[in-house]
Design goal:
The chain is α+β, with helices and mostly antiparallel strands and 874 residues long. Among the domains are: 130 residues, Distorted Sandwich (Calcium-transporting ATPase, cytoplasmic transduction domain A), CATH 2.70.150.10; 141 residues, Rossmann fold, CATH 3.40.50.1000; 196 residues, Calcium-transporting ATPase, cytoplasmic domain N, CATH 3.40.1110.10. 46% of the residues lie in helices and 16% in strands. The protein contains 29 helices and 26 strands. The strands form four sheets. Strands 13-12-11-10-20-19-18-17-16 form a nine-stranded antiparallel β-sheet. The chain has an eight-stranded mixed β-sheet with strand order 8-26-25-24-9-21-23-22, with helices on both faces. Strand 16 and strand 17 form a beta hairpin.
């Protein structure tokens, strides 16, 4: 290692470079101040309408109603801000990605410095388990294996070595390049730092992140609704005020009535209902292992039409497993998952035993000897941060071979090494593509164990086997590789004399067979994608892995429609070269880089889809940020992925995304249910005030009575609707179109229908009471209130469910407060009501029953005519 590699930088030079290049850190996400969070909540159009209502009610001296509306605003803002802060704190608690320190050589001595203090030109000293703190180029490597999955998506660690003739680390070879954030799985290395901070691979990916907040479909819809309601409110104020003046009513009285009616027309509980529904949805998602970072993202999940998922650790276990072996005597399958040494060898569909296992055990024994990995058992009492399952130390493929050896009944690795002590080795490297170990056999001879890539082992220069056998082995290796497996060939031999070097023994060996390894799909992956298809969500696989591996996994989990060849596999380079006219026609992307992942997500969004992107690596960060919903893995995910995401899965299970989508649909359904209820009630109040005088009811309701009805119906009862359980068919219908109005899909027609029915029932009760010389205004007041309570019960999907007992309790409480308005002297005086007898109550109850029946009929019609999902979104 010539030059300054032996001594490293001087302390003074390191300080100068740190000043010039800045800290070796990716800029952290800016902390949002409290006032900015509050201001963002108050900019909501409906909140602005309510703020205007507060100002108007204060102007006319209606302090009680001003206080009620102001309380709604305060509660809405507080809940939204608290949820955002809690989510940010929870994500911060998951942060564990960046290397806290690095070993460097400075002034000729080894030193440990904070990773932020690493500068270009530093000499890094790397060992097993270290996180590479900056981009660097190797000057020395010994059996160095690097896990680059967080940057590239490649599921298998990559061998790194110094190419011949480039000992100074200045050559262009990818084999010598190290990138910030990757992990040393095995071996040792010395490297010269080439880039830090924003100039590193990590920094360049972070630069693609757009930190501006994205507006959700719900925010778009409610903003449009808020603008409409604001215009309608203003028009109603002027209309009612003008009509009252024409009839000769005092201007002051009509001003109070007009403003009260305007407040009634605006569902002022909507922000509270939305916030409560979102907060409850976020809470339920947290219980189902999904942490929501931004409250509006809860609803957006319900509109997701495309789920872009990565492969390693999301669709797959994220752990290598030997699934098949082939020996000259035949093939065998191995069961079990992960590194847990439980499973069996199956031949011909049944468990193998006795002599049948001989060839398999011989192959796996040689693989266990030619092996530097170890298996770590789970902690006896797992706790937070403790290991709760079997884990690999070293190369994941070597650990998988150890697990397979145990399943086949081979000796324990440590017992094997005691019986066959290792005397020499030739480590695996990317040029030779094989590893050889020498062992002292019990009879004094030398046992040679070799494993490697089939093209490096199935060679007459290495094996003393007939050509037909080698041809058969090559054919089987090619078939397994085409199925997406990583294939290793294993050979062994016995020698009388100890060779001078291990590589000198790589000749005249006997072929033991092939081991086919893969990162198998999770058990729930196929079921999860089937659930997505049933919900009308298109699944797209985007990975940095090999095309054959990506296609094999996609086929095994049923990502593609059976019998179709549409969009089999497209590589990142083909996408970058413009060879793919429409990326939305493709379902599998392989060998993609961060920019290409971003392009794929943007292509779907440009076609009008709501996208969810899952990921765990740094390379997923830009796409996570730009997708409508970014979903990061909490356990194995990187800090960059978690900070870019809207949703963090604490269990790393894709099925949790489906559960979150269900919660999102539940939230949106409840918001629409409240809008239907609130706007139908407001419509009825407006129609009563406009039509009453034409039917001989001069001033149908007083301002205080309107506000009391509004308070009881839009208050506790309306808010309770936000906790209604999910509709039975929520996950069997397609996602709602992202540009569909919040009152679309027949909702405004139902709103008008219910408004007319409630108006008719209430006015009929009032007119009958007047014809019987009863206190018609109090009857009309109670009828309008009870009819709306009947509607809220009729809108329930499941009438007698115990899932949301708050709603019937709220209806009962509202009915009690309605009675208080008639029988409590103070309230009678304030609201200008009178006590009613049984006849009057019966008239109001009839109006309530009419509202209930109308809501139930509309609900059945909606279920009968509702959209049904036919499968993949086009």
């Amino acid at each position: 290692m010539p030059g300054d590699v032996d001594t490293g930088l001087s302390h003074e030079e390191a300080v100068r470079r740190l000043t010039r290049h800045g800290p070796n850190a990716v800029a952290a996400e800016r902390v949002v101040p409290l006032y900015a969070r509050v201001a963002a909540q108050l900019r909501d159009p409906l909140i602005m309408v309510l703020l205007a209502a507060v100002a108007l009610t204060l102007a006319i001296g209606d302090h009680a109603d001003s206080a009620v509306i102001a309380l709604v605003i305060v509660v809405n803002t507080t809940v939204g801000v608290v949820q955002e802060i809690r989510a940010d704190q929870a994500v911060a608690a998951l942060s564990a990605m960046s290397a806290p320190s690095a070993r460097v050589r400075r002034d000729g001595a080894e030193a440990e410095v904070p990773s932020a203090a690493v500068v270009p030109g530093d000499v890094l000293l790397l060992g097993e388990g270290d996180i590479v703190p900056a981009d660097a180029r190797l000057t020395y490597a010994s059996s160095l294996l690097i896990d680059e999955s967080m940057l590239t998506g490649e599921s298998v660690p990559v061998d790194k070595a110094v190419p011949p003739g480039q000992p100074d680390g200045t050559g262009p070879s990818e084999a010598a390049a190290l990138r910030a954030g990757t992990i040393v799985v095995r071996g040792r290395g010395v490297a010269l730092v080439t880039a830090t901070g924003k100039d590193s691979a990590l920094g360049r990916i972070a630069a693609l992140l757009d930190t501006r907040p994205q507006t959700t479909p719900l925010q778009h819809r409610l903003a449009a609704l808020g603008r409409v309601l604001a215009l309608v409110t203003l028009a109603l104020c002027l209309l009612v005020f003008a009509l009252g003046l024409v009839r000769g009513t005092a201007a002051g009285t009509m001003a109070v009535t007009a403003i009260s009616l305007a407040v009634a027309a605006v569902p002022e509980s909507l922000p509270a209902v939305v916030t409560l529904a979102l907060a409850l949805g976020a809470r339920r998602m947290a219980a189902r292992h999904a942490l929501v970072r931004r409250l509006p993202a809860v609803e957006t999940l319900g509109s997701v039409s495309v789920l872009a998922t990565d492969k390693t650790g999301t669709l797959t276990e994220g752990r290598m497993v030997v699934e098949q072996v082939w020996t000259p005597q035949g093939g065998a399958d191995l069961t079990g998952s992960g590194y847990e040494p439980l499973g069996e060898v199956r031949i011909g569909g049944r468990a193998a035993e006795g002599r049948e296992l001989g060839a398999v055990r011989e192959l796996l024994t040689a693989a266990a000897l030619c092996n530097d990995a170890e298996l770590r058992p789970p902690s006896p009492e797992p706790s937070d941060g403790a290991q709760s399952r079997w884990a690999a130390l070293g190369d994941p493929m070597e650990a998988a071979l150890l697990t397979a050896a145990t399943k086949a009944g081979c000796e324990d690795r440590h017992a094997l090494h005691r019986r066959y002590p290792r005397t020499d080795e030739e480590p695996f490297d990317s040029l030779r593509k094989r590893m050889t170990t020498l062992h002292r056999a019990p009879d004094g001879r030398v046992l040679v164990s070799l494993k490697g890539a089939p093209e490096a082992v199935l060679d007459r220069a290495v094996l003393d086997e007939p050509e037909p056998l080698l041809a058969t082995a090559r054919h089987n290796a090619a078939q397994l590789a085409a199925q997406g497996f990583r294939v290793l060939a294993v050979a062994s031999g016995l020698r009388d004399d100890m060779p001078g070097r291990a590589r000198d023994a790589e000749t005249g060996l006997r072929l033991l067979g092939l081991a086919a390894l893969s990162d198998p799909p999770k058990e729930a992956a196929a079921r999860t994608l089937a659930d997505c298809r049933a919900a009308g969500i298109t699944a797209v696989l985007i990975t940095g892995d090999h095309p054959a591996t990506a296609e094999a996994i996609a086929d095994r989990v049923g990502l593609l429609d059976s019998g179709t060849a549409r969009g089999r596999v497209v590589t990142g380079p083909a996408l970058a070269a413009g060879e793919v006219p429409d990326p939305t026609e493709v379902r599998i992307f392989a060998r993609t880089d961060p920019k290409q992942k971003l392009d794929i997500v943007e292509a779907w969004r440009a076609h009008g889809h709501v996208t969810a992107m899952t990921g765990d690596g740094v390379n997923d960060g830009p796409a996570l940020r730009h997708a409508d919903i970014g979903v990061a893995m909490g356990r194995r995910g990187t800090e960059v992925a978690r900070q870019a995401a809207d949703l963090v899965l604490t269990d790393d299970e894709l099925s949790t995304v489906v559960a979150a989508v269900e919660e999102g649909r539940r939230v949106y359904d409840n918001i629409r249910r409240f809008l239907l209820y609130g706007l139908a009630g407001g419509t009825a109040e407006i129609l009563v005030m406009l039509l009453g005088p034409l039917l001989g009811l001069p001033l149908p309701l007083r301002a205080g009575q309107i506000l009391w009805i509004n308070l009881l119906t839009h208050g506790l009862t309306g808010v309770a609707m936000g906790a209604e359980p999910v509709s039975p068919g929520a996950m069997r219908r397609p996602p709602r179109p992202p540009h569909e109005h919040v009152l679309g899909d027949g909702l405004w027609q139902r709103m008008l229908f219910l408004g007319v029915v409630v108006t008719a029932g209430s006015l009929t009760a009032g007119l009958v009471a007047r014809s019987l010389d009863l206190p018609w205004q109090s009857v009309l007041f109670l009828s309008l209130l009870v009819a709306q309570l009947g509607v809220v019960l009729g809108l329930r999907d499941r009438l007698l469910t115990r899932a949301n007992l708050l709603l019937p309790a709220a209806v009962a409480a509202s009915a009690g407060l309605a009675a208080a308005a008639l029988y409590v002297p103070f309230l009678r005086s304030v609201l200008s009501t009178v006590a009613l007898g049984w006849t009057e109550i019966a008239l109001a109850a009839a109006a309530g029953g009419l509202g209930f029946l109308a809501a139930r009929r509309g609900g059945r019609a909606r279920k009968d005519g509702g959209r049904r999902c036919e499968g993949d979104v086009r």
